[in-house]
Amino acid sequence: MSPRTFPPPFVFGAATAAYQIEGGTREGGRGPSIWDTFSHTPGRTLGGDTGDVAADHYHRWRDDVGLMRELGLGGYRLSISWPRVQPGGRGPLNAEGVVFYRDLLDALRGAGIAPVVTLYHWDLPAELEAEGGWTNRETAYAFADYARAMARELADRVEVWTTLNEPWCSAFLGYASGVHAPGRTDPAAALAAAHHLTLAHGLATTAIREELGEAAKVSIALNLHVTRPADPGCVADLAAAHEVDVVGNHVFLGPLLDGSYPIELRELTRHLTDASFVRPGDLNLIRQRIDVLGVNYYCTNYVRRRTADAPGSAGTGGHGDGTASPWVGLDDVEFLPPSGPTTAMGWNIEPEGLYELLTALDNAYDGIPLMVTENGAAYDDVVGPDGAVHDPERVDYLRRHLDAVGRALEDGVDVRGYFVWSLLDNFEWAYGYSKRFGIVHVDYETQRRTPKDSARWYAELVRTRQLRG
Ligand code: IFM
Q1: Nearest protein CA to atom 10 of ligand 1, as residue
Q2: Centre of ligand 1 from the C-alpha of residue 223, in Å
Q3: Separation of CA 421 and ligand 1 centre (Å)
Q4: For 373-418, what is each residue's pLDDT tens digit?
Q5: Alpha helices, DSSP H only, in 123-234?
Q6: Which of 56, 66, 134, 142 has the highest Cβ tally under 10 A?
Q7: Residue 214: is its pLDDT beyond 60?
Q8: How far apart are CA 464 and CA 162, in angstroms?
Q9: What is d(CA 463, CA 457) in angstroms, rounded to the nearest whole number?
Q10: How far apart are CA 413 and CA 295, in angstroms?
Q11: Rounded to the nearest 10 degrees, what angle do helices 95-110 and 137-154 cross at?
């Protein structure tokens, strides 16, 4: 690995999300979200874990900002809990909730840390789900109203406004596979949800700019899938990988950046929906200037074309445990188990995929500014007898992925920053607290924070801006 330099204004930061760290779910006038309902439903999360307390950031945010200052972070990517600032998702704001974020943002600014604020990281107000959630077009308009209100209330405290985090997960894990809230398994609903999420992004972007002017920086964070054919010489496998690219990536990139849906998406999903949720004029509302595209990257996928005699179904049929595949329309695509070392999530480790993704986006979208808004790894960390958390595998993971980012930068790709997922160990959705992504360990009994070796390593990188092999 050659040494890499990340000159300013490249931002090094860490990321979190409200439901994963805040806790305080019944405090300060917060309303319920779909994740409260889902996690309190027996069988939905590992061990019945919920976000009720999480990392107790709602009470410990001052210390957590102090921790970030000690690490020397230049940026912090947080999310606003919609039900905390606007319980019910419509109508008057909850002043206590707004003050919570205002104080947090002021403290970050005071510590010299630039806030990148996500407006939606999966915690839809429960009342909106009762009206159909993201399958209901009205949710997109409610979201735009909420975005406008946040722009008005928080204004220039925010460096970058990210409308949505990983809408693919909201739509396809939430409404097709059922492993995320609201836990539905209806492929047609997932496609409608995907469209309404992009519509919400477009409407919210316009609302933010109407409130704050054209100088407001707006973004969206996508978990783009880097998919490889099992056999690169096999035409059928190449076609399968292309289909995953369509349903996993271009379902969003198309409307957001090209102003159209890929034709293949219609072909792959015709038997599931007539797509009448796409109304005339929608694509113009959705395609707005994106100041910086957020890229969340963890691993790659390997796929092959399913043959008629292959057992099982990766398609939209049920898995027999109340969940189904998120890959709507891709019944003929088989996802292969990872080979080689994996993280505790069972995800493979392929930094080259991040380099390829950044350069491909740069090529396809005319040098669009990019930011790695999430990258990191879960390992089974423990506090050792010396009181430290030694996590050499995470250090290695981060080093190799940052090397990929540095290489893209050197090749002229406009990458503005890198945010490690995550600052703190937290509630990893359906996996509850069993997966630790933090560079800071959290003891959930005592809420004691212990920076892991990776945090110290990252702090040194942030200080020197030099990555050494
Ligand atoms: O924890 C999640 C995060 O909320 C969204 N991106 C992926 C992370 C790891 O699974």
Answers
A1: 428
A2: 9
A3: 7
A4: 999 999 999 999 999 999 999 999 999 999 999 999 999 999 999 9
A5: 126-130, 137-154, 167-168, 187-212
A6: 134
A7: yes
A8: 28
A9: 10
A10: 13
A11: 50
Alpha helices in 40-173 (DSSP H): 57-71, 82-85, 95-110, 126-130, 137-154, 167-168
The pLDDT-based confidence of 82 (bands split at 50, 70, 90) is very high
- Which residues have any ligand 1 atom within 6 Å of their CB? 17, 20, 166, 296, 374, 421, 428, 437
Residue range 222-249: mean pLDDT, rounded = 98
- Mean pLDDT for all residues in the chain: 97
The SS3 call for residue 75 is: strand
Tell the residue nearest (CA) to atom 4 of ligand 1. Answer: 17
Residue where the block lists tokens 């996500």? 118
* Domain edges within the chain: 4-298+351-467
- By C-alpha distance, which of 141, 278, 253, 281 is closest to 204? 141
Distance (angstroms) between ligand 1 centre and the Cα of 296 equals 9
CB contact set of 182 (below 8 Å; sequence gap of 6+) = 34, 37, 38, 124, 129, 133, 174, 175
Tell me, in angstroms, the distance from the centre of ligand 1 to residue 394's CA: 16
Pick the atom of ligand 1 nearest to 429's CA: 1
Q: Which residues are the active-site residues?
A: 166, 374
Give the residue, by CA position, lying nearest to ligand 1 atom 9.
428
Residue pLDDT, tens place only, 277-326:
999 999 999 999 999 999 999 999 999 999 876 654 444 457 888 899 99
Domain covering 4-298+351-467 in this structure, CATH number: 3.20.20.80
pTM: 0.97
Index of the ligand 1 atom closest to the CA of residue 345 = 10
Cα separation of 425 and 434, whole Å? 10
Q: Which atom of ligand 1 is nearest to the CA of 122?
A: 4
Looking at residue 150, its pLDDT comes to: 99
Ligand 1: distance of its center to the CA of 428 in Å? 7
Query: What is the predicted pLDDT for the residue at 84?
Result: 99
